Amino acid sequence: MRTTILITSPDRFTAPGLELFDLPPIFAGGPEWLTKPVLIALLSSVVVIALCWAAFARPAIVPRGWQNLGEYAYVFVRDQVARPSLGKDADRWMGLLFTIFLTVLVWNLMGVIPLIQFPVAAHIAFPLVVAVGVYLIKLYLGIRHHGVRGYLKGIVHLPGLPWWAYSIYAPLILAEVFVTSLFTHFIRLFANMFAGHILLAFFSAVGFWFVFERLTPLGAGIGLLGVVMTIVLTAFEMFIQFLQAYLFAMLAAMYVASGLHGEH
């Protein structure tokens, strides 16, 4: 059962809420920034480094074990994330994209690991920092390869569009490239992990309360439903966690490509 059941009161069931994300420092009197999400993010980095070391430190001609798993993940990111957007430049950016995919995936999976049970990306600061990093890379590449004027022209120019329509089209596409794209990159990941964590916490709290805390003939059915829904949603959440890591990395590849090619 999830640790979020502690929010229930002795007399009545209280559904979990935003207090799930209001986490105090790990150590009393310690630094304010050292909270559970930060500790899990650090642990996630260690996990990603360990997995990559185990898979690629001593590569064999015939991959086995961790190397086989690592190469499968690498090929997936290369063929499904990097090449569709970056084409011939895909291999140059695989280090960044592979790291982003693995890091976000481990962040997300932490939400279903027993005793940890907190998806790092459900704390908005973490996906925001990665998205801002990709955003700055996009701007740097666009200006470096095309210059400010050429980059803006590549974004705004649309073949066949009448000159008078640019007064409407140009502000919209510039807002999408320089403002909206940043927010859509991290908000999608954050919102899905946030909502998934709330749902899992709610149904696991229902199951624990009505089965273990206040077992009654009438409440037993509700508690059993809570347990079943927790199991079903955990499986579904794992699929969403993988999907969101893939989408986040795919958008990163698209934004890097837009900087390299100077197009929206």
UniProtKB/TrEMBL annotation:
The chain crosses the membrane at residues 38-57, 93-116, 122-143, 163-183, 189-211, 218-236, 242-260. Keywords: ATP synthesis, Cell membrane, CF(0), Hydrogen ion transport, Ion transport, Membrane, Transmembrane, Transmembrane helix, Transport. GO terms for cellular component: plasma membrane; proton-transporting ATP synthase complex. InterPro entries: ATP_synth_F0_asu, ATP_synth_F0_asu_bact/mt, F0_ATP_A_sf. It is a multi-pass membrane protein. It comes from the Bacteria. Signal peptide: none annotated. It is found in: Cell membrane; Membrane. It holds the Pfam family ATP-synt_A. The keyword Metal-binding does not apply. One of its GO terms (molecular function) is proton-transporting ATP synthase activity, rotational mechanism. Its main location: membrane. Belongs to the ATPase A chain family. HAMAP family: ATP_synth_a_bact (MF_01393). Key component of the proton channel; it plays a direct role in the translocation of protons across the membrane. This is ATP synthase subunit a. It comes from Nonomuraea cavernae.
